Amino acid sequence: xxxxxxxxxxxxxxxxxxxxxxxxxxxxxxxxxxxxxxxxxxxxxxxxxxxxxxxxxxxxxxxxxxxxxxxxxxxxxxxxxxxxxxxxxxxxxxxxxxxxxxxxxxxxxxxxxxxxxxxxxxxxxxxxxxxxxxxxxxxxxxxxxxxxxxxxxxxxxxxxxxxxxxxxxxxxxxxxxxxxxxxxxxxxxxxxxxxxxxxxxxxxxxxxxxxxxxxxxxxxxxxxxxxxxxxxxxxxxxxxxxxxxxxxxxxxxxxxxxxxxxxxxxxxxxxxxxxxxxxxxxxxxxxxxxxxxxxxxxxxxxxxxxxxxxxxxxxxxxxxxxxxxxx
Amino acid sequence: xxxxxxxxxxxxxxxxxxxxxxxxxxxxxxxxxxxxxxxxxxxxxxxxxxxxxxxxxxxxxxxxxxxxxxxxxxxxxxxxxxxxxxxxxxxxxxxxxxxxxxxxxxxxxxxxxxxxxxxxxxxxxxxxxxxxxxxxxxxxxxxxxxxxxxxxxxxxxxxxxxxxxxxxxxxxxxxxxxxxxxxxxxxxxxxxxxxxxxxxxxxxxxxxxxxxxxxxxxxxxxxxxxxxxxxxxxxxxxxxxxxxxxxxxxxxxxxxxxxxxxxxxxxxxxxxxxxxxxxxxxxxxxxxxxxxxxxxxxxxxxxxxxxxxxxxxxxxxxxxxxxx
Lengths: 327, 324
Ligand SMILES: Nc1ncnc2c1ncn2[C@@H]1O[C@H](COP(=O)(O)OP(=O)(O)O)[C@@H](O)[C@H]1O
Ligand SMILES: Nc1ncnc2c1ncn2[C@@H]1O[C@H](COP(=O)(O)OP(=O)(O)O)[C@@H](O)[C@H]1O
Ligand code: SF4
Ligand SMILES: [Mg+2]
Ligand SMILES: [Mg+2]
Prior knowledge:
heterodimer, A: alpha/beta, 23% strand, globular, B: 324 residues
């Protein structure tokens, strides 16, 4: 067994949401994340996929404890982050960073690129001299492909791709061990997406970084991940090594997601087999009984409505939660 | 082969405090009945404005010159009255965000029937009956019940279906779908693309599909035009564009798109970023990012020229297939 790095066990995030009438203060739990378990190792990328509203962002935020867990454990280097007080948590976060989707919106428009990137240094390395800090920022800018002479520019003076590089530089400046990337390239054009994905993979190689890479884009996730976790209504449908997941997806939801991705090849795209899903995601306030996927599942049977399928092994490095994955 | 909609040397420019911005530069395009033309390119390349000009929907600071013909009528010199008739009745648009075209406080049924009442003088009852038929046609479950719902009560996918139903109400000759699935999840996107394929096959309308997603184009388009910095840089049949892209930008776009069907070691990138329209590079606008750039590219602007097989490209570099 390797040393524990990140271990997430039966993590639940339930938001109390006002239901009932306007004046009937009635609250129901919205189960955004509902019993998620996984490990992440140094230097590894775990892709997290699923339709919007499946709980991907909430999961990422709960790992950093930016949103509190309702139940379960987030163990970081052996310490349960959910049990820490605020001060201890801030200390732990030195090694845990996050990069968001919307590059411009996630940067303070009144701060220069240099100040944005330096901010974690001010908080965590207050004794650094100004000159040392500037040197570190310039080195990091260079490392992520920004011109150090742009250090005094403001976010609006950068393109979307460059803003994302600023966000990555800020996340990397403390040399964290884990970075949560929440749809980091979704707002970017393809040519720029590829640049940013390559940058993240380079940084991972150079720093032994672990990445939790959240995305709705299964093609990018295939490219960047070592393992992939498929979420549906807050629950893990499948968790598998990249090769197994893409070659032999076992869960009907994974199969449907994969078959829906358009392939940039007219012959393949027009002749491929498809598992068409009907309808939309059900309300997470009122999830289906048994298997949460059953209302859209082409293989659902009566047992699916009665019993929640457990995540079980479906071969080397592949686990699936479905009663009928063998069929 | 007769084109329904023909765009000829279209220029669109916007007046801004920093001077004029030329968003569309000499674009010529056409679509035939029953055909789907895919228009691809990165954001800001001028895809939307090309067709906003056709619809007379440019922002106040925008002006268009050139010709946009819908059998005989030049839309650029049409009166507002003529344009009103064309919009909705002969050319319909479907946008990325259906909420921009749906009225929030009006029931679905009424929004759909108003189109017929306004354009064809239909009575209320006919309007409602046709609205119901149309919702059925775009496969909206429980269509009858949806007639009395408001847009916000529907999911994103259903709203996009309503948008398509609305576009189809007057059986238009041309449908312009501008990033119709960009805001949707892949699962719902697949449903909407199936619906658009059905519309194309069954209604014989000409479809212009504007998208940044090459996969979407591969599934639906018959012909493809690739835009870069306001110009068309390559055009051809969907088969040719994907099998033998000849413009370095098209080649780059295809190479940097991560794909599910092939395992890639390292993603190819296109260096740099799209140019600022107000400060375009000299010569070929793509030259600062082009792997094949040579002196002529910096000095002269290549024009779009047809090659023997029918594919057209704007590039000085010797044409060669993707296989090279
Ligand atoms: N602060 C919150 N309060 C209530 N519900 C929330 C909150 N944040 C997220 N949700 C809900 O939790 C579910 C999962 O959301 P999210 O994690 O953002 O999904 P994803 O990132 O996969 O799109 C959604 O139904 C969303 O509406
Ligand atoms: N009202 C406007 N004023 C100034 N520039 C505009 C205006 N509308 C669009 N543009 C510019 O025109 C260019 C082309 O825009 P657009 O056709 O929307 O691109 P695409 O659809 O390819 O993403 C962009 O650079 C955009 O900033
Ligand atoms: S458990 Fe049943 S409903 Fe759920 S995915 Fe498997 S077959 Fe479908
Ligand atoms: Mg999210
Ligand atoms: Mg556009």
